């Protein structure tokens, strides 16, 4: 980990292209720049989808980028345990969204946003940052929708940074940093998946 530097778009994008991502060391304070070894990823073909999630999929309307700000605000809710998305992170990713780099996948129910995730898309890399849900399975269906959108025959890499028990249950695995960097170089040259604006 390194500490310092700001969250200007060019700095953040260069970091992701180098296999590094920002996360505050203290809320509202210094930014840490991380490149874990091993690195947690979700191979698109390894996603674990329980029947209940597939059934839930039919309940929700899936949208891409229709309300990015509400997604990041829900992920940054200070009432959530282990919250790390402070004002400077929020503002930086909203600017990256405005510039076309940060994206959200959203689950809607009766015209209410009830789940979602957001991250950065650079070529064939989706660097997932956070997800939330207000209805059962709502965040999981957005992950299914993301994987479906990325599964278009081009080399893709879905980065989730660190492995947790929750993510492992969805099929997340770990690879050495050197392998992540090698794969990253390949996927950055790929076109965006067509589902993304």
Question: What structural keywords apply?
Answer:
single chain, 197 residues, alpha+beta, Aminopeptidase, seven-stranded mixed sheet, three-stranded antiparallel sheet, 7 helices, globular
Question: What's the short version?
Answer:
The protein is of the alpha+beta class and 197 residues long. It has seven helices and ten strands.
CATH homologous group name: Leucyl/phenylalanyl-tRNA-protein transferase, C-terminal domain
Helix and strand content put the structural class at alpha+beta
CATH architecture: 3-Layer(aba) Sandwich
Strand content bin: 25-35%
Strand order of the largest sheet: 5-6-7-8-9-4-10
User: What spatial form do the alpha-carbon principal axes imply?
Assistant: globular
Q: Level of helix content?
A: 25-40%
CATH classification class: Alpha Beta
Overall residue-averaged pLDDT value: 92
